[in-house]
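Morning!

This is the sequence you dropped in the shared folder:
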Amino acid sequence: MIKFQDIETSSYKKTWELQKEMQSKRVKNLVGDTVLFVEHEPVYTFGKNANKNHLLQNYPENVKVYNIERGGDVTFHGPGQLVGYPIIDLHNYRMSISWYMRSLELIIINSLSHFGIIADRKEGLTGVWVNNEKIAALGVRISRWVTMHGFAINVNTNLEYYDSIIPCGIFEYGITSMKNILGKDQNMKAVKRELKNQFKINFKKEFKVVN
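The structure's back. C-alpha cells below.
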C-alpha cells in the first residue's frame, strides 16, 4: 500500500534531505512506500547530466540553483506547482525504469483528464504534454530499485520563471499550466486528491508480495 504525505510547502533543500533519508530507510525496509506532495520556493535544479548553458544569464538573482542527482536537464520549481516525490520500492511492482516513468506519465495524464484537460506523451521525450506545450516534467533517481525525486505539474505556476531557462533542454516546445489552459486558478487539494486516486489504481495493478 502506498501512503501519501502532504507537506504543503517546504524549502527545496529541506525536502531534498528528507527524500534521501526516506530512500535510505526504504532500502532497509524501515518505512513503507510513500509519495510526498509539496510546493517549493522558486528554484532551478540541474539533473546530473544537465547542460549548464540551459540556465540563461537573465535568471532572477533571488532564485537558488541546485545540482541534484536525478536524471534530466534544468527545470523550475516554485509556488503553484505541485511536486510529487514517490519513495517506492519497485521490487514490489515491476523492476523497470521505463515502466515506472511511463506509469508516472499515465497517472498525470489520467489526473488531468479528470479536470477536462486532454494531455499525452511525446515520442522520445519524457513528460506530459498538452499539444506542443509541456505541463508536467519528470526526473528520477533509483537506487537499489527504490525511487526518489519524481514529477512536477504546473497547476497555478507563474510561467515567467521559465523564460530564464531552456526547460529540460528542449528548444522547440513551450510550457503551460492547468491555470493557463482552464483560465482560472485550480484547487491544489483537488489535484492532489485525483493524483492519489490514480496512484492507487495504477500501482495496485502491478503490486506483488515480495518475501
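Headline: The first strand starts at residue 3 and ends at 9.

More detail when I'm at my desk.
O.
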